[in-house]
Amino acid sequence: MSHVFVNGPASWNTLVEVEALPDPVSQTIFASGHLDGLGGTSAGKAVSLAALGVDVVLQTVLGDDEHGSLVRAALAHDRIRLRVVEASTGLTERHLNLMAADGGRLSIYLELPSAAPLADPAAGLRGAQAAVLDLAASSLPLIAAAKTLGVPVWCDVHDDDGHQDFQRPFADGADVVVVSEARLDDPRAYLVDRVSRGARLAVCTRGARGALALDAQGWIEVGPAPVGLVVDTNGAGDGFVAGMIASHLAGGTTLESLALGAATGAIAVTTTELGARSATPEQAAALARRVDVRRV
C-alpha cells in the first residue's frame, strides 16, 4: 500500500478555554468552555492527511483502557490504519490543555505511557512515500531506518529554540523540517542552519502572519490563508504539515505545497476538532488558491 507513515503521540485530551493563561500564583479562574476529545500531534496529522485523501499508517502508543477505546474510535477512518504499540502501564496518554483566547496554550500531562517494544517497529515504513516522525522516543530509531529505506523524513519540531537536545536528532535527520517561531530569537538563522545541515526545505510557521520558508533556491514568504472566526488553534501546525505533504505527494511545487499547508492549517483553527479532520480536498485547494506565496 502506498501511504504516509506517521509515528508518534495520540492522546485523549481535556481542553479548557480561558481568557488568558494564569500567572504562577494561587488563584481561582473561570473557564469559558471545555470539551474532551482526540489529541496528540501524530493523531492530528493522521486525521488531517486522511481528510485530504491520503492513506496513512499511524503507529502510536495506546493503553487497553477507556481512553484508549475513545482514541481508537476517534481515529476510525477508511484511510487510517493503526499500528498500536501497547502501553506497558495499560494507560493511554492524556493531557489537560488550557487554551487562551490569544492562542496561548498550557499543556499538562496527566498520563505519559511507556511502551512495550515492537518486534518490527519499522514495518510501517516499507512502501511509504513519506515518513512523519514526530517528537517521541520511539521515532528516534526510525529516522535512520527511513534513510536506509529511502523514505523522505518530515519532522515537526514544534517550539524548538535551536538548542534543545531532544529535538536535535529530529531536526538534523529531517528532509523537511517545520518549526514554530514561538521560541526562536532569529527564525531566519534557524532556517539557514537547517538547510546548511541537509534539509531540502525548512519552514517556520508564524501563526496569523503565515510562514517563512527556505530551500536551495532561496527564501519564500507565505501569507495567511483568509478564514473566518478562529475557534481553536489546537492542531493548526498538524494541518499545515499535512497540507504540505498532500500537495507534495500529488506533484505540487514547493510553493503550491506551502499554499496548501497554509490553507489546511487555517481550516484547522475554524473548528474545535483536532487538526483539519473536517476539511475536504476541494475546500483546501480552493483556499490554497487565495494564499499569497512568493519567492523573495
Structure, described:
The chain is of the alpha/beta class. It is built from eight helices and 14 strands. The strands form two sheets. The protein has a ten-stranded mixed beta sheet with strand order 5-4-1-8-9-10-11-12-13-14, with helices on both faces. Strands 3-2-6-7 form a four-stranded mixed beta sheet. Helix 1 crosses helix 6, helix 6 packs antiparallel against helix 7 and helix 7 crosses helix 8. The termini are far apart.
Rg, rounded, reads 18 Å
- The count of strands amounts to 14
Mean pLDDT: 95
Number of helical regions: 8
Kindly state the percentage of residues in helix: 25-40%
Tally of discrete structural domains: 1
Superfamily (CATH H level) name: Ribokinase
Summarize the model shown:
The chain is 28% helix and 27% strand. By secondary structure, the protein is α/β, with parallel strands linked by helices.
